[in-house]
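User: I'm putting together a teaching handout on how multi-component assemblies are represented. Below are the sequence lines for each component of a complex, exactly as they appear in our records. Could you produce the 3D structure of the whole assembly as structure tokens, so the students can see both representations side by side? Please keep the chain order the same as the input.
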Amino acid sequence: MAKKQKTSLVVMTSSRSRLPLYYSLLRQLDQEGVKTVSSATIADYLNINPVLVRKDLSGATHVCGMPKRGFEVSPLLADLKGYLGYDKQDEAFLVGVGNLGHTLLSNRGFEDLGINIVAGFDNNPALIGEKVGDKPILPMDKMDEFVRRMGLRIGIITVPSACAQEVCDNMVSCGVKAIWNFSFTMLNVPEDVLVKNENLPMSLALLLQQMKSNTEQ
Amino acid sequence: MAKKQKTSLVVMTSSRSRLPLYYSLLRQLDQEGVKTVSSATIADYLNINPVLVRKDLSGATHVCGMPKRGFEVSPLLADLKGYLGYDKQDEAFLVGVGNLGHTLLSNRGFEDLGINIVAGFDNNPALIGEKVGDKPILPMDKMDEFVRRMGLRIGIITVPSACAQEVCDNMVSCGVKAIWNFSFTMLNVPEDVLVKNENLPMSLALLLQQMKSNTEQ
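Assistant: Of course. Below is the structure of the complete assembly, with chains in the same order as your input.
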């Protein structure tokens, strides 16, 4: 694995938001055959204070670091997986099975983090009844019943911006509490519903701005 | 447009990183036929202090707010577009034309923000010579020459994690200064190269954690 990440990560203020990052890093180290890792190395990879890393890990796992060697990767990973609930899968669904919807439905990375995107909904008759891997594509008019019956609380919006608010309203009325929004629409939701916007073009535009700032310095 | 965004945005410390957000919002308002907008409304949508909004906009544009009415959307948009350089297109390229690569190549949102993803590279013979919209898919062994000749400085990595570092090294050797990384590999780059990681499964996992925190409160 590359020695040092030069990227600055989004500010993370709670151990709850840092733990998934430790998990992701440890998983990668484990796959690369790394057996032990120090809190300093973890801190270095993720741009986090090593004291905080030790505090977070001791709060969430039973694995103790060994002097000079650090933590054993494999048991630490197993403990974190249990603590984060990644051994129990959470279920999400997606509306809008275009290019991006397909991409997300077929991405195996979600399952590694304990998330199963169980189905995609669309109103294109040509898609309905098809599958993406083992995930069915269902008609929009089945969404309400399906989401309520399964008790799904996480919805992913990959429809065009023009119909995103309508899809969002439907999700909320079915009991969805967290929406991952890939449209460019700023969604209006009740206080108890979380929205995370994933504006990919804007993300690249911000990187570009940062590159230009760096070049000018 | 929905009245109030409940999402908290990533902390943005410079006007340079806020200006693209103003642009994106104003573009949406303009498309919806909104003629004037106050700094308070902009601030409200984006969770930013209104004083900061006025400061940012007066530094980047020649448009003055009118008492009680605010800014005229259309000239403000035109000024911001020029200031941000979105009227001059920046060019990027992409390596790995799988599902996600296809999705990004066919996304028109980039061009709205002044970014043209000019080509995709892949080593799958079945893809080479094909096009995604008007974007060619070129063989990997043409990347070096193409990127140098075009002077491209922005590379997008949508290859599997296992070959991401190799692709990154190739990009860096061609003069790339900003990498948008969709693989899960933490890339090793020289000091003067920016990396932005876009780990989509992790992004959803963090939203899920946040939802669970909220539910427990």
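A couple of points students might notice: Chain B touches chain A through 75 residues (CB under 8 Å). Chain B has two domains: 9-84, 90-202.
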